Amino acid sequence: MSVLATYYQQLVGLPAAQSLCSLIGLPKLAPYWPALLGLAVFCQAIRLSSNALSSLVFGAKFDSLTARQKYDWGIRVVSQVHALVVVVLAIPIFFKEELLRDTLYGFDNYAAWVYTIICGYFLWDICVSISDRKKLGLGFVVHAIASFGVYILSFRPSLQYYGASFIMFEASTIFLNINWWLDKLGMTGSRLQLYNAFALLSLYLFVRIIFGTAMSYYLFKDLSARGTETPAVLYYFYRIANHAILGLSYYWFYLMISAVRRRFPAKVVEKAKKVA
To answer: pTM, whole model, 2 decimals?
Structure first.
């Protein structure tokens, strides 16, 4: 471990890396960039190893999937691991004194490590989304780039406090992935999937639509109150990225409601409610 720590510090101390971080306006990134790149590689390692592990766990049900479905399965495994980790780790950020004193430009080392994990994931997500854009669509590319852009700018430093609010979006991802896996395991329309759909839609509505919209309002209210402290280019980038992510969240919520209605007729939903 000490050898790895020494090598890590050597990478951090590279004059070229220090200069580059300062040049691109992210001076606080210097101690974290090797971990960020390493985590992006680690995400790919999870995806590549997930098929073998999933085959052991789910056996013939997983082995019978198409190559495309197995690829998508691996993507979901990485997404699930990321969501479970960052949602839990982000909670303490709301209570960091330095960030509470300055919700826009405060900096905290713990928050920086959490955002390093997130940036590593979204860097990997950008690569995946672009390479598979014909299948996934432009929306996923936009989401990945906007998310990475917002979180990498936390090393300016900027918006570390508010960043934790938008990490909470990932809580709904946990149930979204479960819903997808239930489909592939032949449990489409099952009672378990119905209960998961209730949890997914409820959590999605709260964390992304209600909480996300409210925190966006307070974010831009704070930015407007601080006036010229935020460069105009950065302010409008936040605007565009925020509107893109929220717009996609509203659109995806509509698609999820439509999918639930197709899978579960009203009679089935009412019956499940009575049983519950």
So the answer is: 0.88
